[in-house]
Specification:
InterPro entries: Ephrin_rcpt_lig-bd_dom (IPR001090), Ephrin_rcpt_TKs (IPR050449), Galactose-bd-like_sf (IPR008979), Tyr_kinase_rcpt_V_CS (IPR001426). The protein has 236 residues and is mainly beta. Helices cover 5% and strands 47% of the residues. The chain is built from two helices and 18 strands.
Length: 236
């Protein structure tokens, strides 16, 4: 196992600095170069999403390369309840996917500082332990990893039909919804049991039921406000 990814800062076509991890050992066969993240806490997530932005060199644009150049890299992960520090054993990692580029760059693009940035997203789950590592395996490509964003989705706190619904994490199974019962806002009471369903993409779906303002209160901007004597006088 070799760890030959280099931390390099370059300038894009707009003269903005780009901080990357790069590897480009395309002349030698049997490459096995790894880059691993720090330990990442999963928080409340059951499923995580990994967004990678990267550039990849077109093998046909590199002279004198015969069969050793690749145009993909591999993404792995490992769950863990705690940080393992600098210890790294690739055989403990599970492969998520082979990542390929939609666009690769050539020597001409390099000279013009044209950044052909690819974006790929992969999902992983269920995650059961307290955290995880991600690892990137190069097997002989010319890659610059520009950014990695790790996130999870949730249905955010919301108020619908005078009922409050808390932050809710979707199920790992994207085909099933999480039923959430709402609680009435202050000075409101249930007319029909308020419910929403949390979808896999973090969207609230299928609103059912509602709350209504209690006697002596009226609805205004999603909450119940007391009716004053002046309001009653003006309505007569």
């Amino acid at each position: 196992m070799r760890k030959l990814w280099d931390a390099i800062t370059e300038m894009d076509e707009h003269n903005h600095p780009i901080h990357t991890y790069q590897v480009c050992n395309v002349m030698e066969p049997n490459q096995n170069n790894w880059l691993r993240t720090n330990w990442i806490s999963r928080d409340a997530a059951q499923k995580i999403y990994v967004e990678m932005k990267f550039t990849l060199r077109d093998c046909n644009s590199i002279p004198w390369v015969v069969g050793t150049c690749k145009e993909t890299f591999n993404l792995y992960y490992m769950e863990s309840d705690e940080s393992h520090g600098l210890k790294f054993k690739p055989n403990q990692y599970t492969k998520i996917d082979t990542i390929a580029a939609d666009e690769s760059f050539t020597q001409m693009d390099l000279g013009d500082r044209i950044l052909k940035l690819n974006t790929e997203v992969r999902e992983v789950g269920p995650i059961n332990k307290k955290g995880f590592y991600l690892a990137f395996q190069d097997i002989g490509a010319c890659i610059a990893l520009v950014s990695v964003r790790v996130y999870y989705k949730k249905c955010p706190f919301t108020v619908r039909n005078l009922a409050m619904f808390p932050d809710t994490i979707p199920r790992v199974d994207s085909s099933s919804l999480v039923e959430v019962r709402g609680s009435c806002v202050k000075s409101a009471e249930e007319r029909d049991t308020p419910k929403l369903y949390c979808g896999a993409d973090g969207d609230w779906l299928v609103p059912l039921g509602r709350c209504i303002c209690s006697v002596g209160y009226e609805e205004l901007d999603g909450s119940c406000h007391g009716i004053s004597l002046n309001d009653l006088d003006n309505s007569e």
